[in-house]
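User: I'm curious whether this sequence folds into something compact or stays loose and floppy. Could you predict its structure so I can see for myself?
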Amino acid sequence: MYRNIRRIIDLMSIQKDYSDNCHTDRIFGLDIFRAIAIILVVKEHGSFLLKNTVLDSLPSIKMIDGVDLFFVLSGYLIGSILLKEINSGEKFGIRELIRFWRRRWLRTLPNYYLILFANYLIIYFGIIQEDIQQFNWKFFFFLQNFSSPFHGFFWESWSLTIEEWFYISVPIFLILFLKFLTPKKSFILVTVLMIVFPFLYRIGIMNYSINDFYLYDITFRKIVMTRLDSIAYGLLASWVYYYFNNYWVKFKTSSFIIGIGLIVFVLNYEAEYNTLYKQVIYFALGPISAMFLLPFAESIKMHKGVFVGIITHVSKISYSMYLLNLALIAEVVRDNFAPTNEIDGIVKYLLFWFFVLVGSSVLYKYYEKPILNFRDR
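Assistant: Here's the prediction. I'll summarize afterward.
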């Protein structure tokens, strides 16, 4: 009885966290998870500024792909919300589906379309050197990389399309399966479907002639049909949390150790881009390792302190950081203010981070947050 009550309370906390409500309702461990993810992404996008500097020559630690962390965390939070919905005793039908989409789209679409328009303008006016001819109607419907590569315009949107199609497809499948199965069985069946199909799809499009990073990256890593399983592992985690919470808590430390071990393996096992491992298996191992980190992360509860405040703020503005950092800041610096010497490169790298953090904070406070407040009323 106590465990069931606790589970409901925890799920309510997760939903409040995902809705960006008051500070004390947030789960700090998940904020750390999200903050690390965005820091890794921004660090990678601004790293060109440090080339030929003393910082570039320092030993570096290999890190997991930040986007994989985002994918798994998104699946976990969305899965937690959907599990609460389908186990509430109320029918999960078309009305609930529309409500779910409306909340998701008010969270993601306003920022997306604003930055899409900004990308078009800065290319149109020659501020950055990208190919405006690549802009087309597909960007409005998240189809630019649904099953084939795209290039030269709004690069960072590749992961957003994967998330949007995940949000579209999962609840639809849930509605269909709930007609015949219990919520528990329906949810795990949808999860397995979302894991198995992309895995088999990657096998189906394997191309041994692709042994170049650029072609490999846009053909396998950045396609909707090949990467939906990355988010589905977060669904699996939410299912375990909801139905087997005692195991979730009991094995959180051993799960964390397994996750770290998998990360070490993924980062250090070298393989050519034209292998089964690299084109198929690799894209499952990263998200699986991130999934194993979630029980430990979810257990970290802190509410006070400067460090907590910084991590929480970075977590809140992470979506704005993701959208702003590449084309609107990194590429503007690259094409207009390229470093002229070592000191200049370091200074501009620090300024890059400054503008990412300040710009994202402003965008969050005056654009993203008011829309979220409107959504939550």
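Summary: Residues 97 and 171 are 7 Å apart (CA to CA). The radius of gyration is 21 Å.
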